[in-house]
Amino acid sequence: MSEFILSPEGARRVDARLEPAGLLDLAMEEAGRAVADAVQASFPEGPALLLAGGGANGGDALVAARHLLALGRAVHVLAQPSKHPLTRLNRRRLRAVGGEVQPLNLSSLRRAAASAGIVVDGLLGTGFVPPLRPALAAVIEVLNAAHDAGLPILSIDIPSGLDASCADVAGLSVRADMTVTFMGFKTASLFGEAATRSGRVTLAPLRVPPDWVRGEALGIRPDDLEVAVLLPVRTASAHKGTAGRVWIVGGHPGTVGAAALAGLGALRAGAGLVTVHSLADVPLVTPELMVQRHTNWDHALPELRASGLPDAVALGMGLGPQAVGVAREVLAWGIPTVLDADALHPELAGHGHPQCLWTPHPGEAARLLGMGTPEVTRDPLAAARRLQELLGGTVVLKGGPSVVASADTLSVSRGGHPGMASGGMGDTLSGVLAALLGQGLSAADAGVAGVRLHARAGELAARAHGYGLIASDVSDELGAAWLDLKQSWGQFDTDSD
Ligand SMILES: NC(=O)C1=CN([C@@H]2O[C@H](COP(=O)(O)OP(=O)(O)OC[C@H]3O[C@@H](n4cnc5c(N)ncnc54)[C@H](O)[C@@H]3O)[C@@H](O)[C@H]2O)[C@@H](O)CC1
What we know:
Elements: E1 2-7, E2 10-15, H1 20-42, E3 48-52, H2 56-70, E4 75-79, H3 85-96, E5 101-103, H4 106-115, E6 118-122, H5 134-148, E7 153-156, E8 178-182, H6 187-190, H7 192-198, E9 200-204, H8 210-215, H9 224-230, E10 245-249, H10 256-268, E11 273-278, E12 290-293, H11 297-306, E13 312-315, H12 323-333, E14 337-339, E15 356-358, H13 362-369, H14 373-378, H15 380-391, E16 394-397, E17 403-405, E18 410-412, H16 425-438, H17 443-465, H18 471-476, H19 478-488
Parallel strand pairs: 3-4, 3-6, 4-5, 6-7, 7-8, 8-9, 10-11, 10-13, 11-12, 13-14, 14-15, 15-16
Antiparallel strand pairs: 1-2, 16-17, 17-18
The chain binds ligand NAX.
Residues 27-28, 31, 53-60, 84, 124-133, 136, 156-157, 182, 206, 208, 212 line the site of ligand NAX.
């Protein structure tokens, strides 16, 4: 692989395998430039105060200072001593274009903060190893006090003092208004109190080898346009047999509603024919939903198989104690399958296939991984990646936000509504996902599109109901959500003829 590297010595072509430092130099240059652009776009007023730590995070700040200077912005740079070769190189580059670098201490910080319009925090990035040393803790306290008095802070990659791979916050950290993060979103940018302290997070993708991103469990956040492209469209010649035949396998005496809600979700997400297969009496939530009651699974499953398999199955919702055996059998059919609730069992590891979609909430994820729920919620990106490796196919780790993990990517959902935290929402989602699989989407695409469609429907339902949102309200809005997402792409514009 060859790259052009721009260095003070001039442009030269290097082989990245032989010269990884060249690639890092380019990545730091892009990172620093992205920070400078964000400062100019979001905080154009007053001098920019840049704080550079001793590692590569500080190097990014020094690059940003050079770009801001080139754009005519008044800059003030306070830096810690550094042994990092690229950070030292960028200090020399900044000085070479007339930039001044002064030592960072509490009095220089207080003085510079008094006249700054924005502080750029490049003290600590992903290389931070807790606990915070006292000298830097004092610097962060001064910084947060200035922030409380109205000085905005933009953090580079993650706010200093946060552990990038942790949603929880153990101690002191910078409280940023905005964070410019690189390559992919970190757990700290997306989840829990760490996300709150990160402020608005924007992603600057860097030209780095893809395995750098995979190796660190970094997420992407598909926007509505990307989701709209994935959502299926019916052709004029479609009929109910081509729009996806879906089976819902679930329900048990006492938990039949779960299967019915999944069926409703599948119908409203566009499946042509939906049948609920259950050992219990399923309530007639809508006459369009077909229901077949069976006496036992040992007989029912071979008969169902012989009757001709559907385009997709969702199983597990309220299925009860026989779920693992049923799931094993259905997985052997090799057709697109959503596994939810009772079918999320560690015994099924190794029985999945690429067209499987597993949909655990954090408690189910913890059971699958043999850990506690707090460990899952502390780092949902890593948990989703581990689940995908364990189960195969695609995993939707539900939460706010949900993570969709496929072999190649970790996608993190947008939107939804707090009112969606009520029983049955997950069953609806399983139905939606099965409908999308049945309409021909891959498990990875169905996961990304289905989670967003469900979330958008929740937002629309919340608008209509305000409070006391229930799963069937969300199902009722799935068609409107589909239209809304498609319109964001300019497809199905109601104003055009
Ligand atoms: N990974 C990549 O490919 C890229 C990384 N970049 C930047 O590099 C950063 C990571 O750089 P580094 O690995 O050099 O690490 P950092 O710069 O995040 O942190 C290392 C520095 O923090 C100090 N430090 C660590 N723990 C501390 C503690 N408990 N108390 C006080 N000081 C502490 C170390 O002494 C060292 O000076 C990223 O966050 C990002 O900003 C960018 O340059 C772009 C490319």
